[in-house]
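Side project, low priority. Logging it here so it doesn't get lost.
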Amino acid sequence: MNSAPRPPRATAWSSLWLLTRRDLKVRYSTSLLGYFWSILDPLLMSLIYWFIFTQVFSRSVGEAPYIVFLLTALLPWMWFNGVISDSTRAFLRDVKLVRSIALPHWIWVGRIVCSKGIEFLLSLPVLALFAIFSGARVGWELLLMPLAIVLLAILTLGLGLIIAPLVVFFRDLERAAKLILRVMFYASPIIYGAADLPAFAQPLAWLNPLSGIFGLFRAGFFPDQLNWSLVAASAGISVLLLLVGVLVFRRTIGGVLKEL
């Protein structure tokens, strides 16, 4: 266990911001396309699903304009997916820094949540452009997006605090996380809405915290996707996972530092 005194709270937040900026610079400083890489993946996925469901098959899920319907869930999904994937190596990729720098250790997970969150915010202009050109309806529910962002940040931080230390002890969790993320993509209301699930699968929407959060993201363009009961369930699960994450992290961090 690191016996060095913890820095003041202001210093901790400053360090979080510096590490977040470092992650973004490392990711894009040597990249020719830079910022566009953060939007290229969800944009291409949206165009593929749009083509499949509107041009190849007769679409029976989601709402029109379907490209906006896809982007309102795919963009936050990329945030979620990125945090979970990178959390599996939160400590392993910077072992020397984790050992040598006296910082609150949750920062190594928090910087991932922040950097992926900033990438998400930078991708919102793409959503705005598609909404404008497709003639999407925009309502007052768009003001709910900050709430969706906060809930997704809580959820990803909680899961990151659980995954990051456990992967140090159980390396197979890295592969397991990738497999689970693949399943979760199709089990989450991304290419469809929560209401599109058949009756026997409706409990999945209530157990998946992404369901209510994605509904909040979509509400500004598709108010019928907003289900406050589902949002409340998602918020409760997200907060619970954050509390569990804090508990797991505190109880395992000592062993993590010895294992590294």
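Brief comment: The CA atoms of residues 146 and 217 lie 9 Å apart.
Revisit when time allows.
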